Amino acid sequence: MKAVRHGSAECSRKSLQTTKVWQALAFITRHANDDTVQPSVPYRAPLIVTAELPGPVQAWADGLRKAHFPPERNHLAAHVTLFHALPFHVLQEARALLSRLAAQTAPVEARLNGIMDLGTGTALRIDCPAMLELREEIADHFHGLLTQQDDHVPRLHVTVQNKVLRKDAIDLQMSLQATCVVHPFTFAGLALHHYLGGPWSDAGRWPFRGARRGRR
Fold first, then answer.
1. Secondary structure (DSSP) of 148-164
2. In whole angstroms, how far apart are CA 84 and each of 26, 45, 51, 147, 151?
3. In 152-211, where do the E strands start and end?
4. Is 40 left (phi over 0), alpha (psi -120 to 50) or beta?
5. What totals of helices (H) and strands (E) does the chain contain, helices first?
6. Taking a C-beta distance cutoff of 8 angstroms, is the pair 27, 62 a contact?
7. Which of 103, 109, 134 has the alpha carbon at shortest distance from 210?
8. Sign of the Cα pseudo-torsion (161, 186, 201, 47, in order)
9. Going residue by residue through the chain (216 aa), what tens digit of pLDDT does each one get?
10. Number of neighbouring beta carbons within 10 Å of residue 170
11. CA atoms of 136 and 132, how far apart (whole Å)
12. What CATH number has the domain spanning 40-207?
């Protein structure tokens, strides 16, 4: 009887822990843009910062991912990552900073400019000095908190294929090189996400709506 009671208690504890995790995720999702809300203490997911693509480019890149990304790995929409892992405890600070920068900044001009070979994958190369300038401002703000990866200036890109055979990557690159031309567009805003070990959870999105323009 003691063993039965112990097993029952253990199941109850595990069930309670699971419930608390789901409650925390639901709470954060509901209040993603509420700067007054603090995350639950157990919620320690790193933060990802991305630049928001405009609708037509987003739809095109999403279509490429759907067609060429391994389905079991395709948890995300197409995206342009600016920072891979800000510490979880700067959530409110990051929201405030991204909100302020987006409010001050005009939509950022950029251009798709060819293909990037990822070895076992393929990406669309993006040229955008103005976005790198904005990223540098964010990096300066979080100086001392950046990972080694985030402490370096990235090559902006949209990954449309990854973790495939080298032959498949080469085939897609040759196909895209035959059809891709330099294509101007404007980034629509900034976004923040919680990293959940594969999928992401939104932590806020802020459209560019200011007058400030960076260098081209």
1. TTTTS----EEEEE-S-
2. 23, 11, 12, 8, 10
3. 157-161, 183-187, 189-195, 200-207
4. beta
5. 5, 8
6. no
7. 103
8. positive
9. 444 444 444 444 444 444 443 444 444 444 444 444 444 433 689 999 999 999 999 999 999 999 999 999 898 999 999 999 999 999 999 999 999 999 999 999 999 999 999 999 999 999 999 999 999 999 999 999 999 999 999 999 999 999 999 999 999 999 998 887 789 999 999 999 999 988 899 999 999 998 877 654
10. 12
11. 6
12. 3.90.1140.10
* C-alpha distances out from residue 214 to 3, 24, 131, 192, 197, Å: 67, 38, 8, 21, 34
Q: Which amino acid is at 151?
A: D
- Distance of alpha carbon 149 from alpha carbon 45, whole angstroms: 17
User: What global pTM score does this model have?
Assistant: 0.79
Rounded distance between C-alpha atoms, residue 143 and residue 152, angstroms: 12
Q: Where are the domains of the chain?
A: 1-30, 40-207
